[in-house]
Amino acid sequence: MEAFLKQKHIDYVKSQEEHRSYEYWLSEHLRMNGIYWGIMALATMDELSALPRAEVEKFVLSCWDDKYKAFGAFPGHDAHILSTLSGLQILKIYDSELKQLTNEQKQGVVKFIEGLQLSDGSFQGDRFGEVDTRFVYTALQALSLLGALTKSVVDPSVEFIMRCQNFDGGFGMAPGSESHAAQVFVCVAALAVVDRLDLVVDDAKLAAWLSERQLPSGGFNGRPEKLEDVCYSWWVLSSLAIIDKKHWVDLKKLQSFILSCQDPEKGGFSDRPDNQTDIYHTCFSITGLALTDAPGFIKIDPIFCLPCEVTMGMIKWKD
Ligand code: GRG
């Protein structure tokens, strides 16, 4: 099995922030997510200090959208639920009490998120109306980080998620949509945030669907008949971890596949061996490796995709 090239990956993450390439400016709309992916990759390797905390926090706070009272992906962008969760996660990694935000800002975020819930329990990402189970997870995790989950938000959310479970045991992005591993993660993790995993009555069926994602290479695909992609190392394995079934897959073969996706010269990971690296695949390769219990990583909470030391002792939600 190839060795994990830790220093190369630290340098790769740093280079993403230091190097203002054409692609950097083209991906402004993903900047907040990108920083979360970089920070999570570093935190998982126990190398958080490789990026300057003050500058990272300053950037996050500069994405505050004072009209909608939440975070956009880049300074001057409108607030969106995805960048808001990433912003909260980054701040929380540095300070589990979120002291970087005023109470007024925290209340603003709670109102912003609650205002995105629709009558069927689903959430839209912003006022433009895209609906996806991703946003239910994002909303529940963000409200949980703020200690602001209420029954009136949770009950309809849970009802909506359960309408997205399919006959094959998996979950899709909306009721009737095809099962997809990343959507399984957001649905199962959302149920876990609010302690409603009991609703997944046939977890063996779900675990079977998830473990069928492992291909002969050791990597996972996201749904039947598709190619493996290293990011599913996280989406599939975290889902199995949440339902306590990691042992249903071959973790050694998965480690070997993940390591084969490293760029041995510049660091970083690509979706499959020898492809172009990016910070998204780098994050979910490293967090995925940590979930395989490979040595040298800190413990990652599979429900929140945050270091366990950040979520430990956090009251996720009170009835
Ligand atoms: C805090 C971990 C965390 C997540 C926040 C944004 C979000 C919540 C979750 C994203 C989940 C998601 C839908 C990820 C996309 C995964 C992916 C690679 C989809 C690509 O789908 P296709 O159809 O690829 O292009 P396949 O692999 O099916 O061919």
TrEMBL record:
Transmembrane segments: none annotated. It catalyses: geranylgeranyl diphosphate + L-cysteinyl-[protein] = S-geranylgeranyl-L-cysteinyl-[protein] + diphosphate. It comes from the Eukaryota. Coiled coil: none annotated. GO terms for molecular function: metal ion binding; Rab geranylgeranyltransferase activity. Residues 4-306 form the Prenyltransferase alpha-alpha toroid domain. Pfam families: Prenyltrans. Its cofactor is Zn(2+). Keywords: Metal-binding, Prenyltransferase, Repeat, Transferase, Zinc. Binds 1 zinc ion per subunit. One of its GO terms (cellular component) is Rab-protein geranylgeranyltransferase complex. Belongs to the protein prenyltransferase subunit beta family. Catalyzes the transfer of a geranylgeranyl moiety from geranylgeranyl diphosphate to both cysteines of proteins with the C-terminal sequence -XXCC, -XCXC and -CCXX. This is Geranylgeranyl transferase type-2 subunit beta. It comes from Diutina rugosa (Yeast).
